[in-house]
TrEMBL record:
Keywords: ATP-binding, Nucleotide-binding, Translocase, Transport. Part of the ABC transporter complex HmuTUV involved in hemin import. Responsible for energy coupling to the transport system. PANTHER family: HEMIN IMPORT ATP-BINDING PROTEIN HMUV (PTHR42794). Residues 1-238 form the ABC transporter domain. The keyword Transport applies. The lineage of its organism: Bacteria, Pseudomonadati, Pseudomonadota, Gammaproteobacteria, Oceanospirillales. Pfam families: ABC_tran. This is Iron complex transport system ATP-binding protein. CDD domains: ABC_Iron-Siderophores_B12_Hemin. One of its GO terms (molecular function) is ATP binding. The keyword Secreted does not apply.
Length: 254
């Protein structure tokens, strides 16, 4: 189904007081996690993915505690794009995208025709089909980012967690990737993204989680929370808010 929930969750950020968080992300929603550097956005995303233990509380996936599921079971339903990636062995773009199918293959099972078709389709969606035989080590930052997203699309999980998915991307590809996220939500996926760009969040997210440096969080619908009275203290930055084609836009002031 793709229901991800946090119950009295305290993420494990060193030297921070406990701030329990309750959160339910339902299929079809696009969430933006926003907050200043060091607020704990990546830690939260990794905790929601089960890659990092919480200090207390729990995360459930379709009502089952994440901690009681095996990594493979989790990976069949939940995928994550990391902010930083290290390629540990030489691989082409296509081979990397095919890693998205590994949770669905048994040990030593080769990828089949359907897996290749999915991966090829994902490369086309991310506008990198022409790079399919290139080694990852030869790619630009934006090209690597799009391969990471193509790998997630090849995996095709019910829950998409992405840590700054527009990192390194030019304007056109930022917009295309956000549209892809919204399209996936339209197909019933749950999408959670850490974002630094308020304008992308305002344009593409329907819910936001605002994370404060002391661990407090505000959770709710985009239009209620993306207002200057709330965002200025969050970012310690004066802001001007405008409206373009019915979308809120924010500009730093002074
Ligand atoms: N292993 C660790 N040891 C000590 N402190 C850590 C460790 N991992 C993370 N932290 C600290 O936890 C805090 C939250 O880090 P996190 O990467 O989650 O923040 P973030 O909101 O994603 O930041 P950014 O916007 O800069 O990416 C930071 O102050 C970071 O220095």
């Amino acid at each position: 189904m793709g229901l991800l929930a946090a119950h009295q969750l305290v993420i494990d950020v060193p030297n921070r007081p406990a701030q329990p968080l309750d959160l339910t992300i339902t299929p079809g929603q696009v969430w933006g996690v926003l907050g200043p550097n060091g607020a704990g956005k990546t830690t939260l995303l990794h905790t929601l993915a089960g890659l990092r233990a919480p200090r207390s509380g729990s995360v459930t996936l379709d009502d089952t505690p994440l901690a009681s599921l095996g990594r493979r079971q989790v990976a069949q339903r939940l995928g994550l794009v990391f902010q930083e990636r290290m390629e540990s062995f030489p691989a082409t773009v296509l081979e990397t995208a095919l890693i998205g199918r590994h949770p669905f293959l048994s040990a030593w099972q080769q990828e089949g025709r359907a897996d290749y078709t999915r991966a090829q389709h994902a490369l086309e969606c991310l506008d990198i089909a022409h790079l399919r035989d290139r080694l990852m080590s030869t790619l630009s930052g934006g090209e690597r980012q799009r391969v990471a997203l193509a790998t997630l699309l090849t995996q095709d999980p019910a829950i998409w967690l992405a840590d700054e998915p527009t990192n390194h991307l030019d304007l056109h590809h930022q917009s295309a990737v956000m549209a892809l996220m919204a399209e996936q939500a339209g197909k019933g996926k749950s999408v959670v993204m850490c974002l630094h760009d308020l304008n992308l969040a305002a344009r593409w997210c329907d819910h936001v989680l605002l994370l404060y440096p002391n661990g407090e969080a505000r959770v709710g619908e985009r239009d209620a929370l993306l207002i200057t009275e709330i965002l200025e203290p969050l970012f310690q930055q004066r802001l001007a808010m405008g409206d373009i084609d019915g979308n809120r836009v924010f500009m730093p002031r002074g």
